[in-house]
């Protein structure tokens, strides 16, 4: 999970809310929903808010997710700060979470969210014992972030840069870290946060 810096709400959503003060998400026109999702995908650098896999604006690849579900928090259904873009996997992330919620669920809007999780070169995600591991465990289970499918995808992404397949020097690891922590494009590589976490652990072992 990577911290998401929210942009101001789209002007179209602001105007809709002002003109329809009793409206809920269900009242949003389809084209406005598409516009909002596009804004979310772009501000997330084309990365799923929960797992970090690549997404785009298409209905086939992403959906508009409410961190606090509309069913339980109808007053937040049009709050842009409660809206995220999630991948469309049926067994993880927003689709898996559905209308479930727990007050300990870690939000990608938390600036320290990435510190709660540790990733291995084998693709596993685990709670960081030094950063509220109970909340991380709840989040991993509710979003099914350690399912076999995501493990395999993360493992292949890491193998794509040599992690787990060959011995990397500390200099090589540092160069890789820099490229993933400060991407030069408007789109993040898939699972970049998981890769950064694994690279930091490898670097720690090399320098230890």
Automatic annotation (TrEMBL):
Gene3D superfamilies, per database record: 1.10.30.50
Taxonomic superkingdom: Bacteria
Protein name: TIGR02646 family protein
Record organism: Heliomicrobium undosum
